[in-house]
Amino acid sequence: MSQKSSYFAGFVGFVPDPRSSLEAEFSRLVQHQQWLSGSSKHAKERRKCVLAEYDFHLGSIEVSGKLDAWQRLCKEVGIRKPPASITQCKKVLHGVHINLVDLVSSRREGTNVRRFSNAEELRAYTLSEDKIFPKKKAKTDGLIKIFLRGIF
């Protein structure tokens, strides 16, 4: 699979639906591949899926020093009038609580990402829905690390 193709394109006989949510598409793939939910294979593939889909759908905005990338991210999370500087974008985004898996899914679907009122609400949702984005990847990303919150 090249960096320019979706994780889901790499499975023979599986027809990806690019507008389906990340979770729904992965569930369809799990059934197609007959992976046992909760197995180590399932967990490994889910992590690979999240990372590959992130790279496919959001990796293109990895230009952390560019104002337009920060303004685009502001718009994606519902800030209608993004600030005029990177510093101001970061300040505004620091107060936004979103789930990073949902950010990837919203990019796939072309929908708005769900925002949470506070970090505790985000934490409860993230844990109950098991939507954990790999922390190591988020920490090294120039843009999305602004959304990291203490989940565990």
Tag the structure with descriptive keywords.
152 residues, mainly alpha, two-stranded antiparallel sheet, 50% helix
What can be said about this structure in brief?
The chain is mostly helical and 152 residues long. The protein has helices at residues 22-33, 40-57, 67-76, 86-94, 100-109, 119-129, 135-140, and strands at 97-98, 115-116.
Topology readout:
Elements: H1 22-33, H2 40-57, H3 67-76, H4 86-94, E1 97-98, H5 100-109, E2 115-116, H6 119-129, H7 135-140
Antiparallel strand pairs: 1-2
Characterization of this structure:
The chain is mainly alpha-helical. The chain has seven helices and two strands, in the order H-H-H-H-E-H-E-H-H. The chain has helices spanning 22-33, 40-57, 67-76, 86-94, 100-109, 119-129, 135-140; strands spanning 97-98, 115-116. The chain has a two-stranded antiparallel ribbon with strand order 1-2. Helix 2 (40-57) packs across helix 5 and helix 3 packs parallel to helix 4. The longest helix is centred in the first third of the chain and has 18 residues, at 40-57. It starts with 21 loop residues before the first helix and ends in a 12-residue tail after the last helix. The model has no long low-confidence stretch (mean pLDDT 88).
